[in-house]
């Protein structure tokens, strides 16, 4: 295992950034010990923003890179990085968080939930949660995981009125795991599968038959377990989607059908061109103009929140190439079962798309090893915020539900059960 000085520094700083993510809650608490709006209060508050963590450490890394190897080498490295995913998540998160798109999503889910309630006589609020946490993540296989995360998280956010610490961590853990595995029905929507599908010739039939149906079963089981465990808290702390619609109807202008259709058309255009940055950013810029002229039917666009999520992912990408020196040999030396387990664990500290990409660079992997790597990567996608790219978007939307910020260790513990379900389904079925 050989490495250069800059690779070693990149790995060390990446490790420190990961440790930093587990300390954001404590750092935010420290910021309250200083006068509000003071220099130290603002500085510690910045360090306590989880979306800023990797960007801060990436900036430090680039400063060291420039000082050691010069401006030209650093800029050459920077120009060769692929930032399509952060830009895409920024665009899709803004579009999916608009009132017309969210309203269309709620009405679709409400229609299906109402049918289930009539047939099986199930409680309205629990049925709504059940359908949201199943159809939302599974739709990620077609509209992409970031879009599914944004819409699903906003629906949950509108339904949650009163929540306990255990409930909100359990809910976000199931959301993260379900999104990570819910995009595995197709070869183009889940980033960990997309990274390898072309190189390994995985088509729709292969992905569906090897990953899709197993992931769908895990999504249903995770959702059912969540509702069984938190049945009382969900019944008392949530309102139904119909009540959400009623409340919004009383305070917002009715959205004309053509406005909704235009928004869905823009959403479709961005999804279809997801792998072509210039194309989807051009569509997005045009969308901003449409949003301006339909302002009556809009809430404030979530530009700041979406940019923070993009910055978070950009920081991770900045470090990605410098993990290859230790990660690729490690993956290449494992047996199938160990590779599967290792991928689940490594995903918690390395974005799962980056993990499968690096694995695809290892020559001579058997078909069973390829499956083990990708299955482990998507199974572990809910363990931490950095484990799966869309997690940052979900947390950004639900962050106000976590007083003092999310505690990564609490998320890790809460995600163990749904992750175990995903592991069992993907490995034993």
From TrEMBL:
Keyword terms, alphabetized: Membrane, Transmembrane, Transmembrane helix
Protein name: Na+/H+ antiporter
Entry's transmembrane regions: 12-32, 52-71, 83-102, 129-156, 168-191, 211-230, 251-272, 278-294, 306-326, 338-359, 371-389, 409-428
Superkingdom assignment: Bacteria
Pfam families named in the record: Na_H_antiport_3
Lineage, top ranks: Bacteria, Pseudomonadati, Bdellovibrionota, Bdellovibrionia, Bdellovibrionales
Alphabetized InterPro entries for the sequence: Na_H_antiport_3
